[in-house]
Amino acid sequence: MTHSGKVFLTGGAGMVGRNLQDHPATAQWSILAPRSSELDLNDAKAVQTYIDRHQPDLVIHGAGRVGGIQANIEQPVAFLEQNVTLGRNVIMAARTVGVPRLINLASTCMYPFAAPNPLTEDMILSGPLEPTNEGYALAKIMAMRLCDYIRIEDPAAEYKTLIPCNLYGPYDKFDPKNSHLLPAIIHKVHQAKQEGRETVEIWGDGTARREFMYAPDLADAIWKAVDDMTPLPGALNIGVGFDHSINDYYDAVAKVIGWQGRFTHDTSRPIGMKQKLCSTKRQTDWGWSPPTSLADGIARTYAYYFEKVAS
What we know:
Number of strands: 13
Structural class: alpha/beta
Strand order of the largest sheet: 2-1-3-4-5-10
CATH superfamily of one domain: NAD(P)-binding Rossmann-like Domain
């Protein structure tokens, strides 16, 4: 079933939001994606007034303060407080106005750090969180549970949470101070090639494993969810179903960029969880899988970086 109407999208200027708007499915919808200069999502009254005025048929909540390990360690207050505020304001405003459907975008950071892999959706809240990004994770759990509680009070409300694995792709942040792993690797290896350096440093021993998905593939899953929300569970992992070591990702990026140096390791640096691999059983039962291979995704992302960021 193909729906159409008006979508209120938060985080429209971010990587996920911009890839959502680039997807062909947007032709069926009128997209409302105000910038922060137009709508301050930290202002609960302003958010409710905006939603009430525009009466969207659907809300996609993708806004948030995001960053890698270093940023989360240095600014835990901001990662907790800002993401709690954004989630509460958007979800509660949608509920108050009576928006019937909402897709809340969460994160695999919500899973306990000691949970066995692959991570199934019922493991959330079953144990302590990874300390390096606990504040961000708590905020995402709050938003997910708020959607759950709204469905309990109003079974007709389709307020569902998608839990993407780690992402990379066009419109990403590539500065290692603020970026996630793969875009940071692309930046570091590109700089090494440009400067003629023979080594690139990896935090930790490189054996920690991560699952990464190309961001346009997540956009495809979200638009499928928009057209197929009723059968969705309250929480659904969106991932590729397999992972690679950090060393593997460095090797893959070096191959795409054509850098032939060697990697060193700083084992005094934090690495976060040793493994974070999503179970994709519910996703497979739902009938979706990501179409882009790791090699193709890295090549396309590097092409974007080379044209838009490095030049």
